[in-house]
Amino acid sequence: MIRRILLFLVLCVVFSCAKEDAEVAFNGLESEFVGELVWVKNFGGSGNESAQAIIGTNDGGFAVLGYTGSIDGDIAAKFEEENDYWFLKFDANGVLQWNKTYGGSMDDIGQSLVQTTDGGYALTGYAMSSDGDATNNQGFHDNWILKLAAQGVLEWESSYGFSGHDHSYDILEASQGGYFFTGFLDITSARADDNTEKGNGLTSHGVGEFWGTKIDENGSIQWRGYFGGTNNDRAHSVVQSNDGGFVMAGFTESDDYDVSSTNGSYEFWVVKVDAFGNLLWEHSFGGDGIEVAYDIAKTLDDGYVVVGNTFSNNGDVLVNHGGSDVWMIKIDAEGNLVWEQTYGGSEFDLAQAVVQSKDGGFYITGNSKSDDKDSSFNYGENDIWLVKTNSVGELVWEKSYGGSGLDFAYDLIENEDGSVMVVGETASTDFNTLTSKGNTDLVLLKIK
C-alpha cells in the first residue's frame, strides 16, 4: 500500500502544484457570475494550516474545518505543535466570529463537517491522540467524530478504528437520524484485531477498503461495513440518496470481490448501500491510467456527479489534455455513466470538490499547474483553480488564483447571492495582497 501511495505522490510532484488570479474563458451560457475576486483572507500561525471543508450555516454565515500545527498567530489556547482539528466560524460578510481547536498531543487531521438539526456541528477526520479532547485511540489513526454545540463547545467525541491507519474523509447527518461517515479501513490490521464482520469467506480482502459507519445521535455504532477487493480501495466522499441509502465515491485498485469490472489500475469507484449497509450496486470508471475520485454531489435529476483526476485517454475517458486532467462524470440514479468531461492543460490538474450551481451547471475547484489549453494562466506552481460548466459539463469559464508557491483548493460552496466561497491552503508569499503568516496558511476566497 505504501509503495503505491508513494507512486501517486511522486506523480503529483513530477507534474507539480500552486495558485492565484488567472484569465477568463467564456463559451456561451449567460451568467451574472464573472469570476471577480471580491476578497481573499488567510489565517494561521507560524506552522502549517489547511482548510479542508466549508459549509453554509443556518445564520447566513459559514463554517470551515481544517487543521493547524501552530500555537501562535490566529490560533488560541493551543499548546502542542502537533496537528489539531481547527474549526472557524464566520458571519455572512466573512468576518471571523470565533475559532477553536480540538485534539491531543498527537496528529489529528480535520476533514469534513456538517451542521446538525439542533444548530450544532458534527466533525470528522482522523486522529492519533488519546489525550486532550480525545479519550481513546486503537492504534495509529482512528476515525474521530466530534459533536459540537452551536458555539463550538464539545458535547461528545468518539474514536472508531482498529490498530492500523483508519481514515475518515466525509460525514453527513442521516435523514433517519444520527450520522454516516466514510473513508478508509486498514483491513489487514482490522483482521488482525479479529474484525471478521463479512464472515471468513470474504476476509481475504486486502490493503484498504471503502468503510462506511452509521452511528446514532450519541455516537453509538448502529452498523458499519467495508467494501472492496484485494488491493487499495478508498472512499473520499458520500451523499445520501433519496431512498435513504448512501452513495460513496473514491477509487479502487482492485478487480475482485466487491469490484466487478475495471479498465486499469486506479479507477473511480462509486458504491451504493441501503440504509442498513447492504451493497446495492457498484460501478468503476476510468481508462488504463490512474483515476482518483475526491468528491460526489447529488444532481437535480436524482443522479450524481463525481470529480477527481485522470491520467488516461482511453476507456471511459475520451480526451486527455496532457498529464493529469480534472475529470467529471455524470451518472444516473443506478450508477450508469451518462456523460464525462475532462478539463486541463499539459501539466498537472486535479479536482477536489464539485457543487451544482443555481443555473443547473456545476462549479469545480481543485488545483492546476497548467497555463495552456483549458487553463489560461498559471502563477508559478499549482494554483487554486475554479471551473464553471453548463449542465452537461461543457466548460463555460475558468480562472486561477494564487502566487508563486504551492496553493491548493479543497472545497467550495455557492452562496444565495450566486457568489462562491473557496477554501484551501497557500504556501505563496505573493498571493494577491496577503501577508504570509507561516509555512502554509489556511486561505479563504470569495468570488462573484
Task: Explain what the structure shows.
This protein has two helices and 28 strands. It is mostly beta strands and 448 residues long. The protein has a single domain, classed as Methylamine Dehydrogenase, Chain H, CATH 2.130.10.10. The strands form seven sheets. It has a four-stranded antiparallel β-sheet, with no helix packed on it. A four-stranded antiparallel β-sheet has the order 2-3-4-5, with no helix packed on it. A four-stranded antiparallel β-sheet has the order 6-7-8-9, with no helix packed on it. Residues 1-31 and 198-204 have low confidence and may be disordered.
- CATH level 1 name: Mainly Beta
Sheet with the most strands?
Answer: 4 strands, antiparallel
Give the strand line-up of the largest sheet: 1-28-27-26
Q: Any idea what the shape is? A: globular
Number of helical stretches of at least 4 residues? 2
- What do we call the CATH homologous superfamily? YVTN repeat-like/Quinoprotein amine dehydrogenase
- Helical residue percent band: under 10%
By DSSP, the count of extended strands is: 28
Indicate the mean pLDDT: 90
The appropriate CATH architecture is 7 Propeller
Name the structural class: mainly beta
Number of domains: 1
H/E series, N to C?
HEEEEEEEEEEEHEEEEEEEEEEEEEEEEE
Per the CATH scheme, the topology name is: Methylamine Dehydrogenase, Chain H
Strand content: over 45%
Uncertain segments of ≥5 residues (pLDDT<50)? 1-31, 198-204
- Cα distance spanning the termini: 42 Å
